[in-house]
Amino acid sequence: MDAxxxxxxxxxxxxxxxxxxxxxxxxxxxxxxxxxxxxxxxxHQPVPLADVLVKAxxxxxxxxxxxAQLAEVLKxxxxxxxxxxxxxxxxxxxxxxxxxxxxxxxxGGLLMHAEAQEKLGLCSGEFGLNVEDYLTGLCFMSNEFxxxxxxxxxxxxxxxxxRVLGFLTxxxxxxxxxxxxxxxxxxxxDGMKYDLRRVEEVYYDVKIRGLVPAELKxxxxx
Amino acid sequence: MDAxxxxxxxxxxxxxxxxxxxxxxxxxxxxxxxxxxxxxxxxHQPVPLADVLVKAxxxxxxxxxxxAQLAEVLKxxxxxxxxxxxxxxxxxxxxxxxxxxxxxxxxGGLLMHAEAQEKLGLCSGEFGLNVEDYLTGLCFMSNEFxxxxxxxxxxxxxxxxxRVLGFLTxxxxxxxxxxxxxxxxxxxxDGMKYDLRRVEEVYYDVKIRGLVPAELKxxxxx
Amino acid sequence: MDAxxxxxxxxxxxxxxxxxxxxxxxxxxxxxxxxxxxxxxxxHQPVPLADVLVKAxxxxxxxxxxxAQLAEVLKxxxxxxxxxxxxxxxxxxxxxxxxxxxxxxxxGGLLMHAEAQEKLGLCSGEFGLNVEDYLTGLCFMSNEFxxxxxxxxxxxxxxxxxRVLGFLTxxxxxxxxxxxxxxxxxxxxDGMKYDLRRVEEVYYDVKIRGLVPAELKxxxxx
Amino acid sequence: MDAxxxxxxxxxxxxxxxxxxxxxxxxxxxxxxxxxxxxxxxxHQPVPLADVLVKAxxxxxxxxxxxAQLAEVLKxxxxxxxxxxxxxxxxxxxxxxxxxxxxxxxxGGLLMHAEAQEKLGLCSGEFGLNVEDYLTGLCFMSNEFxxxxxxxxxxxxxxxxxRVLGFLTxxxxxxxxxxxxxxxxxxxxDGMKYDLRRVEEVYYDVKIRGLVPAELKxxxxx
Lengths: 222, 222, 222, 222
Description:
homotetramer, Methane Monooxygenase Hydroxylase, Chain G, domain 1, 2 domains, about 0% strand, single-stranded DNA binding (chains A, B, C, D), RNA binding (chains A, B, C, D)
């Protein structure tokens, strides 16, 4: 009995140490993600978009390096990705949300799963970006849009609601195709409906006040 | 965007189906484990021990077959043992508790981790018996002893408390060597202290009433 | 053993008495702070600002005197500021919130930590204004603004939302630089986001209704 | 505003770092205290008392060294003992309980506050052993006695209950002299009553069965 418990003691201590190392890297990911998100918050103010994006993207490189460190740590325990996955799940949601919002600000389109993986250097082998984490990150990104359209309209950008509405409507429709059995994800997705509704209201406000003069022309083009 | 979500849809449906298949097997494990535990409960009554053990051990063979089925299902998703682990964790605690109590009834000793694995056919490859699940199962087994010694003494078996006390004391001391950072396991271990105390009290009762005539001789030996 | 416990009895009674004296002063601080806050609430009504401020500032002098009394009591137990700190923490949050809001009404700017200390006479020696208490007070002040801008706009002051928004945006951005490990403070700061969002919505409302005619000129200046 | 928050950022990070260092030392105190307590648990088994005490006392030296490290860390922030006190309070209760039980096993008497301070090297200057922590530790020690007397009587030591009862009765009476306004301590003290009652019951059991033949003679001596 003693020999067995002595072995367990060593094993449990080893896995505690591993977890501590994982948490130390994850804590740095959280910190870099917080700095990137703070930089990105400047889109709500009259700051040139290019300046905002430069600051956020600098942190993305830092975060990519940290995920590489995490992958290095996890290489020591093959087949146990999901054992420790809960330790960086929340932080990964925040990172994906930030990346996807940055991508939308740049391109007006959706950051694809493969692109997110590539930006985080998570393409190869066992350590990838979990699909459900990617989707949850998109739900968090969606929460940014109501505030964004309000502030853009206030700053006189009356075209913004229409663009956001088109994007969110497509995203929401795509999510609806999925059979979400993950409770957390389904709940977050439910929240996207409210973001969509608020953006619709803002679009309605600018439309009803005649603040979108080129509207008919734009609609013909699209 | 559509192609990506179409792919996710297929992936999520596939993993839902997998989970349903896992849960179906786990439900059968739970059922067989319940039957075995119910059979084992007869040790609290004046039933011949051999009869009790035969019934419990018949279920162990069933359970072993079910774990083999589970391993077969998991072979389809290599490296994802810990992704689905939570789906059979609770049931495995019950199985280990039942196995370890059966083993103690037969031998008076502790069922080792390797023996538990072997009884469940979990020795090979990726699908083993998690150490923390094994330890949690032992804590649940410990909860059986207070009631067991009370009933054995009632049935006139005055030697039983001493044997159980020696076993539980050693098991408790072995656990104390471990640095338990798993909250669930630590809490379950805290409960073992009360089992130990209750068994001590029963032993005290039989001793103080002079019901252990051969005591002095035994103590000299130990 | 008796002598020791006799000594403890005296010590515990002494520290009970001390605590009672601290609580008596703190209760007066709470009372004066409540009067000041009640006076300040008149800014939500059409009352001249000067009248409101006079009443609030009269209480600040009272509160300053009470903190001096508190410091006097604490001089009797050097090095134990943090032992009793919890006894006046909540009241200090309310006082700082009231002071900072008063200051913003007067100047449109942030009451600095050093200024808050000076107004409360807490500059010297061991008894200062804890930084986390100061920051928590600012979070409480932030909660006043959504209601304030709504009432100012109702009263016809359409410039107010823009001024408040600029102030709150800067304050929020400053807080985001901090790595808040104090749970209570972090939670209070999380609430500031909703205040900010509500003020943005009010600003959006006045803007979209064309109630800020001088807007374009202001934006050019900023 | 920026300069002030930059300063706060530095201050908060500094105090986070300090807290992390404190917690690292406290975690080692907890670990050494756990080893000492595990060693002390052997008094419930037929192990020579001298062997048990040697092992426990070896850890006391380790713990003393760790408190010296803690004091060293706290020297960097004079006057803030009580700011961080909550971080080692629980561990100190365990340490005092273990020390006081060890002392009783050796001498049959109470470990005085000054002796506890000296064993932990906490005599000098600002960093002492808080009286309420000392008293709480004694309450935890009291919880060990019911189990101890049961096991001693089982092992044939029929004099033990009387000795423990005399000690606990005095300790309980001493506590009753105190006006306990600390809620946590008062609640722990309430538990001592149950320990006393259980020890009385065990004493009654041995007395009623005539297992204390030398009783009258002993009473005359005491």
